[in-house]
């Protein structure tokens, strides 16, 4: 009998694992269960869709059950996995269309159940028009409700919240951004960078309600009208909660090793602590190279890499996972921003003894007809000079420099080494001393 592979969840990690497994193990019987009525939705397009830049929601999907069927994969959409027994190798599923539960068996299980937005339990949280932002249905609800809303509040100033704030502001809404930290994007950027982002929003008339915690919601006729915080009250017709994610891993609780937040711990080959149970994506912890520790960093980049590695390593350990720096990018109005590894604030909070170099320069020679400012910060260990993080911001797109620094962190390079890496020079693009070389040189 052919090997039976069951995959639970079919967004980025699941789709990556499935398409690769179908190619590598054509004789295997692969079934994927997905509780939604769609697969492979690109959440990263939600803000662009809300802003009307991506007009057609269909473009936000890259796989369909028909495409997977062509690879020999059985896709069971609207099927909710209710229980998994990793010893008996059985899985209990409910067909949401018929309500019928049934049991399936597997030889190998791939857990790609991802994450779900954190919902704070507080007074008024059940009011209408308090919405989440994660999947296709959410995006449609937000777009529909935003049409009728004048005042919109976004709670959470991470990259998802920030992108929505820009989208709503561009739609002409009165927008309030609330976060308990006193800066936006604090996980990704240090204060000199976030100050620039905050000024952009303030100049556009966005109310920044930072450094305060939401305590309750007040409503009228069952609909939210006001958000109460530790520092004030804000009127809103629509609220979007973007305060973070929790891994969807209840099904394996007590059966495989997890972090305290429920993120599944996998080894470098995507194996959980139970034989034949693999996991990938937002359901998992990742190996965070700057600290060498496990961390919970839900990103599509990690999800597709880990999903692909499940396929490569399903039969025997073959290709190792390299870990992550949590590299990410964002565009806010005219600014192209990216970061990798730890901010200076995060490094200090983690007890690292770090220094930093911050460069503000024009990105190409001043004899060129135009040039723009760029701000680059590199954080490194005071002793030995190992690079642990970097941030860049400019009106020109120099975000690829952060991918370069991601490689440097991954390979444990020092600032001295960075000074003399061979980078090209061409006046259209940069200066004779590449910005990254300059950062290395200034670290002496
Ligand atoms: C608004 C937004 C913007 C983002 N932008 C970016 C970006 O620009 N760059 C980036 O790298 N990342 C971005 N991300 C993060 C990225 O979307 C996630 O990291 C990625 O979706 C994780 O993929 P996943 O397959 O691991 O999990 P998920 O996307 O969470 O998918 C898990 C799937 O499992 C299914 N499932 C769960 N439990 C069950 C069950 N019991 N039975 C059946 N099915 C189940 C779910 O329905 C879901 O389809 C963004 C996220 C959001 C919400």
Structure write-up:
With 444 residues, the protein is α/β, with parallel strands linked by helices. It contains eleven helices and 25 strands. The mean pLDDT is 97. Residues 8-14, 33-36, 43-44, 46, 80-81, 112-115, 133-134, 160, 248, 251, 281-282, 298-301, 303 line the site of flavin-adenine dinucleotide.
Structural class: alpha/beta
CATH-derived architecture of the largest domain: 3-Layer(bba) Sandwich
Shape: globular
Can you tell me the residue ranges where pLDDT is under 50 for at least 5 consecutive residues? none
The number of distinct structural domains comes to 3
Protein traits:
5-stranded parallel sheet, binds flavin-adenine dinucleotide, Enolase-like, domain 1, oxidoreductase, 3 domains, 25 strands, 444 residues, FAD/NAD(P)-binding domain, single chain, redox-active center
Any chance you could write out the topology, listing elements then pairs?
Blueprint lengths: L3 E5 L3 H13 L4 E6 L11 H5 L14 H6 L2 E5 L1 E7 L4 E6 L5 E5 L2 E4 L3 E3 L12 E3 L3 H12 L3 E5 L3 H12 L3 E6 L11 H13 L3 E4 L3 E7 L2 E7 L3 E3 L2 E4 L3 E3 L29 E3 L6 E3 L4 E3 L4 H14 L14 E5 L2 E7 L2 H6 L4 E9 L10 E9 L5 E8 L5 H11 L4 H5 L15 H8 L2
Parallel strand pairs: 1-2, 1-7, 2-3, 7-18, 9-16, 10-11, 10-16, 11-12
Antiparallel strand pairs: 4-5, 5-6, 8-17, 13-14, 14-15, 19-20, 21-22, 22-25, 23-24, 24-25
This protein binds flavin-adenine dinucleotide (FAD).
Gist?
The chain has 444 residues and is an alpha/beta fold. The chain has helices at 12-24, 46-50, 65-70, 136-147, 159-170, 191-203, 300-313, 344-349, 400-410, 415-419, 435-442, and strands spanning 4-8, 29-34, 73-77, 79-85, 90-95, 101-105, 108-111, 115-117, 130-132, 151-155, 174-179, 207-210, 214-220, 223-229, 233-235, 238-241, 245-247, 277-279, 286-288, 293-295, 328-332, 335-341, 354-362, 373-381, 387-394. Strand 13 and strand 14 (223-229) form a beta hairpin.
């Amino acid at each position: 009998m052919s090997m039976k592979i069951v995959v639970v969840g079919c967004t980025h990690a699941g789709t990556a694992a499935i398409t690769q497994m179908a190619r590598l193990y054509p004789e295997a019987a692969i079934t994927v269960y997905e509780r939604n009525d769609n697969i492979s939705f690109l959440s990263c397009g939600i803000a662009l869709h809300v802003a009307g830049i991506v007009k057609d929601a269909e473009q936000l999907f890259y796989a369909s059950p028909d495409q997977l069927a062509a690879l020999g994969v059985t896709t069971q959409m609207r099927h909710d996995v209710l229980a998994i027994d990793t010893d008996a190798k059985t899985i209990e599923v409910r067909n949401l269309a018929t309500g019928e539960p049934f049991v399936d068996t597997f030889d190998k299980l791939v857990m790609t159940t991802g994450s779900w937005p954190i919902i704070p339990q507080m007074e008024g949280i059940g009011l209408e028009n308090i919405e989440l932002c994660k999947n296709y249905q959410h995006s449609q609800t937000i777009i529909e409700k935003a049409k009728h809303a004048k005042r919109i509040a976004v709670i959470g100033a991470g990259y998802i919240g920030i992108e929505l704030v820009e989208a709503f502001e561009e739609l002409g809404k009165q927008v309030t951004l609330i976060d308990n930290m006193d800066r936006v994007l604090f996980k990704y950027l240090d204060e000199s960078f976030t100050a620039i982002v905050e000024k952009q929003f303030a100049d556009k008339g966005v109310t920044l309600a930072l450094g305060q915690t939401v305590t309750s919601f007040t409503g009228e006729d069952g609909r939210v009208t006001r958000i109460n915080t530790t520092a004030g009250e804000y009127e809103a017709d629509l609220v979007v909660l973007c305060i973070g994610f929790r891994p969807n891993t209840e099904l394996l609780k007590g059966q495989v090793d997890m972090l305290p937040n429920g993120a599944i711990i996998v080894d470098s080959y995507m194996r959980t602590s139970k034989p034949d149970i693999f996991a990938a994506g937002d359901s998992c912890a990742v190996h965070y190279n700057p600290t060498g520790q496990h961390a919970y960093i839900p990103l599509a980049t990690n999800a597709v890499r880990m999903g692909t590695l499940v396929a490569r390593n399903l039969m025997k350990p073959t290709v190792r996972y390299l870990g992550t720096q949590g590299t990410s990018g964002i565009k806010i109005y005219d600014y192209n921003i990216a970061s990798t590894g730890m901010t200076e604030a995060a490094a200090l909070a983690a007890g690292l003894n770090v220094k930093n170099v911050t460069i503000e320069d024009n990105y190409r020679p001043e004899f060129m007809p135009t040039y723009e400012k760029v701000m680059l910060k590199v954080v490194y260990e005071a002793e030995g000079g190992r690079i642990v993080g970097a941030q860049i911001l400019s009106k020109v797109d120099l975000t690829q420099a952060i991918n370069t620094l991601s490689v440097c962190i991954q390979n444990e390079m020092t600032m001295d080494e960075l000074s003399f890496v061979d980078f090209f020079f061409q006046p259209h693009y940069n200066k004779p001393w590449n910005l990254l070389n300059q950062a290395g040189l200034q670290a002496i």
